[in-house]
Amino acid sequence: MASPVDPGHVVAKKHGQERSPHWATVRDRHIKMEPKCQMCGDAAKLQVHHVIPFHICILLDRPELELDHRNLITLCACKEHMHHELLGHLDDFSSFNPKVRSHKKKFGKLTSAEIEENAVWLKLEKARPKDWGKMTAAQQAALKTLVNKLFPLVTN
Questions:
Q1: CB contact at 8 A, 47 and 81
Q2: Mean pLDDT throughout 66-80?
Q3: Closest CA to 9 of 63, 65, 69, 53
Q4: How far apart are CA 27 and CA 72, in angstroms?
Q5: Distance CA 8, CA 97 (A)
Q6: Among the four residues 39, 59, 71, 131, which has the most C-beta atoms within 10 Å?
């Protein structure tokens, strides 16, 4: 049986990045910590989503965020809700939603069809971050500032 396609890995490869060999362990540990979709509470077809995609973290000199639980959230990929694709990536796996955690109240119980018809979501989708390769240097710098604000460096 073929393994499922990993859209995050596919996008990362386009930017010359690979997943950490520790990803599977961290993913499995995260699912144990968050065993349900953080939007709808479903426990089916779960995926661990990077708030900021791991390849972008690497490109921003923050590779540790690939395995940092602060940058992870459990979302469902079930046909009814599609929270990973619609809320985590704003319907484009080459993009992301840095405010995904704040969308539970607004979109958590909506079906995928209801989300895609929602005026607020349509605005979010239209304004979603560009693919890394299409960002200007200023946009990349602003993203680095945002990432450092969302996930301050942890020092010992």
A1: no
A2: 96
A3: 53
A4: 9
A5: 14
A6: 39
